[in-house]
Amino acid sequence: MSIEHADGQWFHFGPWTFSIDAAEALIAARPCGTRSIDVATWAKAYGLTRVDDRHERTVSLIGPASDGFDRVYAMTTDLAKPVIVAHVAINGQTPAPLLIDGTHRLYRAWREGVAQLPAYLLTADETRQVQHDALLGPGRTRITPPPH
To answer: Mean pLDDT, the chain, as a whole number?
Structure first.
């Protein structure tokens, strides 16, 4: 889920954060349009099809927890605004897609039976440009030695 900070909007996933502001700037600077994502497939993968079930005992590895997801806000989101899908490469593997902006829109689309959502797809190189190490904090991608 994306979180607003004083220094912009960030998506947190595992040891990384992704700058949504930087992603939007990259998207604005390039001529590529949107692609469509299949709402049912993505909603299921992100655990959104179970988030309303308070008795559900499984935990989604990617999506939000049912007690931390704002359903009321989700139903007010603009489905015409494209979601953002990054491509994350781990240990030299083929980059895997990761939704970094638009979980609430995806939930609303699934609840309303919308089949497709527009999406901006970031390449693996673009993803690295907006990806930061959460353990070090936004904007700090490596440890630098202290000055002598």
So the answer is: 82
